[in-house]
Amino acid sequence: MCFEVVGKFVSWIDIGLVANERFVAVLAAADCLHDITHKGMEPVPKVQLVESLFAVLQQAAVFQLLERVNDQTPAEDVDYLCKLGKVLNGMGIELVLCYHKLAKAAIGAKVQHMLAFLKCDYDDPSRSVIDFARDYVQLLKTKPMLSEAETGHVRDMVYVIIHKLKYDDDYDFQAMGEDEAMFQEYRKRLKVLYDNLAAVDRDLVLHITQQFICSTLDCWKSLPMRDVEAAITMLYMLGEALPPASAGNFFSDEPAKVTLLQTMMRRLVTSDVVSYPHHIVPFQYFETVSRYEKFFTVEAALLPQVLTAFLDERGMNHPNERNRARAVYLFSRFIKCLKVQMGPFTDTILGQIKNLLSLDPSDATLLNREDQLYLFETVAVLIISAASDNKW
């Protein structure tokens, strides 16, 4: 009865009066020890309690009974072993719980500092904590539900990624060196982090991203290149951040099923942001419209705007050679994917690209021979599709 009383009231007792060598050496009742180990305590003193109790049990050699178990062992000794196993089980469970509580508390105390490093205006300090950020997000992915603080961390990291994706003012687009290469590599790592954050809390990440994209596209004429390009890049990144089950189901011609991504794509095309004067913005624009070419199967009315941009000085006739080459390649992909929709535009397209098709060395052309090959292939697709459509 004394043991049972101690076990029931142990949560009211100063544990130091019970978990000591003098008391535990006398206290041989396994059930009472089990109740003591389950006393509600903070992780650090709980670990100290369990370790002290385990040390006393080892000193008392109670576990040696296992070595003497055989067919002749009395039933009461087997029953005692069961109770002893229950004690050991309770100790193990408490230690595992303490481990997770301690780890969570220890990590949480460091996350705010990690976020401060991550959003540093200088990329090197930011890069130095990217692995910690990645592993922390991986940990969050294993949790069935986030705490308020953890949700706040996800929100903060999305805003940091938006900020760190932006080009620095001194980025050299003409002669890319080591610094530029390092930034592009860092962008890739930020994208991986973004994808994982979307897997943790898709709705939150999508909401923040939509706000940034739409607010930027609404006033792109008054914003610096770095903001505009980052917004279009975020739109491009969404395609891989959204769950695989959504692949191919981003867009619908039914008003009730229009997704946020479809709304943002419509905003991208109708904003005319492709006319931004810095060449990197139309460059990223064409990457994005080609990434979501299926959008135009349900929003065919917007095709003329995109085709015109592809064909004029914003695309294949752009003064920047890299822009021209990329536009030709993406245009080829775009036409192949949407050849069914190209019938009404075939004559116009062929008329506008004929100046780029000359193979006469004496004729000045903006494209090199490799780029022209893509364009000839595109012409073939257009002609064959038009012939099929008109049943020639």
Morphology call: elongated
How would you characterize the largest beta sheet?
none
How many beta-strand runs? Answer: 0
Terminal CA distance reads 101 Å
Question: Which descriptors apply to this entry?
Answer:
0% strand; 392 residues; 19 helices; mainly alpha; elongated
Q: What would you note in describing this structure?
A:
Helix 4 (30-37) packs parallel to helix 6. With 392 residues, the chain is mainly α. The protein is built from 19 helices and no strands. The chain has a domain at 2-98. It is elongated, with a radius of gyration of 33 Å. It has helices at residues 2-9, 15-18, 21-26, 30-37, 43-59, 75-118, 123-127, 130-141, 148-164, 178-200, 202-218, 225-241, 260-270, 280-291, 295-298, 303-311, 321-337, 346-353, 369-389. It is 66% helix and 0% strand.
Describe the structure in brief.
The protein is mainly α. 66% of the residues lie in helices and 0% in strands. The relative contact order is 0.05.
How does the SSE layout of this entry go?
Blueprint: H1 2-9, H2 15-18, H3 21-26, H4 30-37, H5 43-59, H6 75-118, H7 123-127, H8 130-141, H9 148-164, H10 178-200, H11 202-218, H12 225-241, H13 260-270, H14 280-291, H15 295-298, H16 303-311, H17 321-337, H18 346-353, H19 369-389
